[in-house]
């Protein structure tokens, strides 16, 4: 993996551990010569993970829609900042630039971006590892819900297994490096009916 996209909140959340782990993830990415691709802002967890990479001399590529430039204040010390027109262009550019995806804690935007990349993997549009750094159990309820989608027949087990989950940065990165995409397609065939 040369570059990883990180989706995360533009705020810090309520627990100091979220910011601390975002910085540590950034440090670890730089130490392993893995560049960061992220939303381009200098606020919240977004800014923390970028600062973590930069303080260890790593590369950081931001992708920011022009209309968010004044709200998600653009980081001034990035390797490169790409300005795009729309949120969809943002995700497309982030996908083009990365070899894998990690979700840190965040809100609607984080979840939407993360699930679109996961859906693209499910559809076979890419074969990149998609991961959750489950800091302090932040994503426990979501992980349980994903299990419910399998139990109720809306998601295949093979597609659930695409999702890499760990609460440990080093373990998560190792799992991502060793990831092999499933060969089973999403779509139901006549033979499976």
Automatic annotation (TrEMBL):
It is an enzyme of class 3 (hydrolase). The keyword Hydrolase applies. Keywords: Cytokinin biosynthesis, Hydrolase. Gene3D superfamilies: 3.40.50.450. The keyword Hydrolase applies. InterPro entries: LOG (IPR005269), LOG_fam (IPR031100). Its EC number is 3.2.2.n1. It catalyses: AMP + H2O = D-ribose 5-phosphate + adenine. It holds the Pfam family Lysine_decarbox. Belongs to the LOG family. This is Cytokinin riboside 5'-monophosphate phosphoribohydrolase.
